[in-house]
Amino acid sequence: MAIGNEGLLLAPAVLQPHDLRDAWRMKHKLGDESLYISGGTLLRTRWETGAAPIPRYLIDLRSIKGLTGVSMTANHIAIGALSPLSDCRNNALLQRVAPALHEALRSIAAPSVRNLATIGGNVVSGAGDALPALLIYDAELVWFDGRHAAAEPAEDWLRRLKYRSAPEDRILTEIRLRAVDAVGQSGGDGLRKFEAYRKVGRREAFTPSLVTVALSATVDRDGRFTDIRIAAGGGSATPQRLAAAEALLRETILSELTYGSLYMAVYEEYEACPDAFASADYRKKTAGNLVVSEIWSAFAQ
Ligand SMILES: Cc1cc2nc3c(=O)[nH]c(=O)nc-3n(C[C@H](O)[C@H](O)[C@H](O)COP(=O)(O)OP(=O)(O)OC[C@H]3O[C@@H](n4cnc5c(N)ncnc54)[C@H](O)[C@@H]3O)c2cc1C
Q1: What is the average pLDDT across 176-201?
Q2: Which domains does the chain have, with CATH numbers?
Q3: How many angstroms separate the alpha carbon of residue 114 from the centre of ligand 1?
Q4: Model's pTM, two decimal places?
Q5: Which of 120, 171, 213, 223 is the most exposed place for a label (fewest CB within 10 A)?
Q6: Of ligand 1's atoms, which has the minimum distance to the CA of residue 207?
Q7: Where does the chain have alpha helices with state H?
Q8: What is the pLDDT of residue 286?
Q9: CA of residue 41 to ligand 1 center, whole Å
């Protein structure tokens, strides 16, 4: 049974497991009376606003070693789920190979929050501003389910999340990005590559998002899009890849692209979520405009 928010002074017991199995056993023994916690920045906001009750027990994942840091293998770049956003943002490898993610991290909260907040917490929230950027790197989420750690495409997890009411009870241990070459203006092979991340909020900086878009694209010497990924999110919307907008670009030569049809493809496909600050229609239009303006700025001038 959770404690009501009137009991803010009744601090929950904080448990510090030594390893993943230990954490998992605690969660399964304590059930709904407990929550995993990483940086605690999102949970604290929910408790303070009364959006969620404070549980009786917090299982602090920061006590488990080996869940932080960024490394590269032949197949992917691995980011430990407990890595603070500030560490990810300052990581030289991520800056080089994942500029859209770097920009997304820059736009989240303020430095003091980013020092505590983890990338795993941002992902598990299901609506974090890092998610659209992660989607354009075909990110996989590695979950510990009590016995094994297994990878699952972030896109699949997000798709199922829309229809899931129970909170995630697995532990996110790692986020994997497909290994990509550093993004350049124009390679010797005649390929033009580009990546971008844009966030629109209610004010210029330190703001929750209304709309976020992330894009990556490559155009060959004949003006064909050979590689295109577009994702959108923002507010409480579940971030998604925009497959129809991607297909439109894949089938089009740059010189024949009509920006109106790209705008409409994004507008029709993006499932925005309205709230007290902006309608779904406004968010869909903004997503369309952001995608069009980024593609136009990158390739059409
Ligand atoms: C002032 C302020 C501004 C903010 N601005 C933004 C913003 O601009 N954009 C944005 O996206 N967010 C923002 N946030 C929200 C939050 O800071 C981030 O989403 C952050 O990355 C959450 O990470 P955390 O480690 O603090 O998560 P926590 O609060 O510890 O946890 C969040 C959720 O994830 C679960 N969880 C955490 N880690 C794991 C794990 N490894 N495995 C399984 N479950 C886990 C928890 O049980 C909880 O349900 C803001 C927060 C504050 C306080």
Answers
A1: 79
A2: 10-63 (3.30.43.10), 70-178 (3.30.465.10), 192-299 (3.30.390.50)
A3: 10
A4: 0.94
A5: 223
A6: 8
A7: 20-30, 41-49, 85-90, 92-97, 99-106, 111-116, 119-124, 130-135, 154-161, 243-250, 259-269, 280-299
A8: 98
A9: 5
